[in-house]
UniProtKB/TrEMBL annotation:
PANTHER family documented for this protein: DNA RECOMBINASE-RELATED, DNA-INVERTASE FROM LAMBDOID PROPHAGE
Span of domain Resolvase/invertase-type recombinase catalytic: 13-162
Pfam families: Recombinase, Resolvase, Zn_ribbon_recom
Protein name: Recombinase family protein
A GO molecular function held by the record: DNA binding
Origin species: Bradyrhizobium cytisi
Segments forming domain Recombinase: 161-297
């Protein structure tokens, strides 16, 4: 966005906005628009005080258009009176966005003037918004038709695929890169021979083989997504079959970001390109057969007991998630950093024992929850919340009681009128019945309203009872979690948001954990006053823990 220095001349204060759509268009387009708008402003007696511009920005959304957003911010400051544009589609080619811009500027008393159309009104906004959006959508259809025609000719309809390079000066043509093609053949051969994508990815990273888009090799890079037929093992281009239109791009109306959505297989377009085959069809079919066999999980393995810390564990070395990684000879479950498992890129690839980490979390929670500061703070917060709820409940109860009094009085008047013969009973009777039904509803609502709670006093006996319950809670939860009790695991997960696991160099086989949970948000700095971090068979005090503070 470019903003010029203010110019002191007479007339209404005006600002100019200019935009062109893509980096394929002429950069002079902005200068031409500004020149045209300045000429118009001079002819109309307007004083141009600023100009705003967006280069290579689509008119399909206002998101990411810094020049337009800056102009709208200045409009709220009432720093100008008129916006001059070459045409309304420079502001937006989306009906909703263009109408919104016009609505907001009109509310601020700011005119929009188009060089070829003059002062913009609601009718013109509606017409131009419709025409602009239809033009944009028609262009999208034309582009897709053009791409479909290219694919039929065996030309690429999208970006580069790993293993290929573009042919200079010949749009859509591809040639095989032999160095990358050797990596493709190796992946397929090793996979068919029985190796897993994780193992293959680890070896490629160790050998510093360049990955697609310059990132590290991951199991997902090789495996891909089955629904989208993505990933190296599922890419049919490697057997000389170009498949296009697997996905479609849609724009999120709230963020302006483009998102991919999978298309039905019946919408896919296929073209034979045997000159681009890197592997033979037999090897490709063998890989698909093995993928199919590996995707069929025995029903007995499909449902596993939910673990206490599933999805909550984080690696202290790299911040990635952690997952189970087999058992030792005694049956104890190991956990390991997912980045170490998937790509081998974590600096700490060793495993931890899950029961040791779970014990640390249970003991740590018990140690922290028994602290008098925590209990006192909890009770204080609890009382404040109860008072707030009580005030809300009292206000609601008062409203219901007022409504009930009004209805009772109206029913009494109706009954008196019927008794004295003042009015038609056929009219007053049904009205009285309806009011009686409404009265019963309000009475029921009053009965359902909770009674005013009594305040909780922090007595020493309460602390003793609280500690006894914590001891029982730890034992009960420890046994329940060990047997896969999902309800017990959920109780712990209500207190814990994340558990970061570190290796403790001061103790052989020791680990340290950082627990971030709901206490942080509830109690702030009072949370975890004992700063428990270490575990070596049992939790011990450590130093230096600064617990994060996630949302409640």
């Amino acid at each position: 966005m470019k903003e010029n220095s203010p110019i002191e001349t007479k007339g209404k204060r005006a600002t100019i906005y200019a935009r062109f759509s893509t980096d394929l268009q002429n950069e002079r387009s902005i200068e031409d628009q500004l020149s045209l708008c300045r000429t118009y402003a001079e002819r109309e007696g307007l004083t141009v005080i600023r100009t705003y511009e967006d280069r290579a920005r689509s008119g399909g959304s206002i998101m990411g258009r810094e020049g337009l957003l800056r102009m709208l911010d200045h409009a709220r400051e009432e720093s100008f009176d008129v916006v001059v544009v070459e045409a309304l589609d420079r502001l937006s080619r989306d009906m909703e966005d263009l109408a919104g811009i016009h609505k907001r500027l009109s509310f601020l008393g700011i005119e929009i003037r188009a060089v070829h159309e003059g002062v913009v009104n609601t009718v013109l906004v509606g017409l131009r918004g419709l025409v602009g959006q239809l033009y944009r959508e028609d262009n999208a259809h034309k582009v897709r038709r053009g791409l479909a025609g290219r694919v039929k000719q065996g030309l690429a309809g999208g970006g580069l695929t790993y293993g290929y390079a573009a042919v200079a000066g010949r749009s859509g043509e591809r040639v095989i890169l032999e160095a990358e093609a050797q990596v493709i053949r190796r992946i397929f051969q090793e996979y068919v021979s029985g190796r897993t994508p994780r193992e293959i990815a680890h070896d490629l990273n160790k050998e510093r083989v360049s990955a697609p888009r310059g990132r590290a090799w991951n199991a997902s890079t090789i495996n891909g997504n089955r629904e989208r037929a993505a990933g190296i093992l599922q890419n049919e281009l490697y057997v000389g079959r170009l498949v296009w239109n697997k996905v479609r791009m849609v724009k999120d109306p709230d963020t302006g970001k483009r998102l991919s959505r999978p298309n039905a297989r019946s919408d896919w377009q296929v073209a034979e390109v045997p000159h681009l085959a890197i592997i033979d069809s037999e090897l490709f079919r063998a890989a698909q057969q093995r993928k199919q066999e590996r995707s069929c999980t025995h029903p007995s393995h499909q449902r596993r007991p939910r673990r206490m810390l599933s999805g909550l564990l984080r690696c202290g070395s790299c911040g990635s998630g952690m997952a189970t990684n087999g058992r030792d000879k005694s049956g104890r479950v190991r956990i390991r950093c997912s980045a170490a498992t998937e790509s081998g890129m974590c600096p700490d690839a060793k495993t931890f024992y899950l029961d040791t980490v779970e014990s640390a979390v249970l003991s740590g929670l018990k140690t922290e929850l028994r602290a008098p500061k925590v209990i006192a703070e909890y009770v204080r917060t609890y009382l404040e919340e109860r008072k707030r709820l009580t005030a809300t409940s009292n206000a609601k109860r008062q409203r219901l009681e007022q409504q009930l009094g009004q209805i009772n009085r109206e029913i009494e008047r109706l009954v008196d009128a019927i008794a004295k013969g003042h009015g038609d009973p056929s009219v007053l009777g049904p009205r009285s019945t309806a009011l009686d039904a409404e009265r019963k509803r309000i009475i029921q609502a009053l009965q359902n309203e909770p009674t005013i709670p009594k305040e909780v006093a922090l007595h020493p006996a309460v602390l003793n009872r609280y500690e006894e319950q914590l001891n029982r809670l730890e034992d009960a939860l420890g046994k329940s979690v060990a047997t896969g009790d999902a309800e017990a695991a959920e109780a712990i997960r209500d207190l814990v948001d994340t558990v970061t696991v570190f290796r403790d160099p001061a103790r052989s086989g020791g680990v340290a954990v950082e627990i971030a949970g709901r206490l942080n948000a509830l109690l702030g700095e009072a949370a975890y006053p004992n700063r428990v971090t270490g575990v070596w068979g049992k939790v011990v005090a450590g130093e230096g823990l600064e617990p994060p503070t996630p949302g409640l």
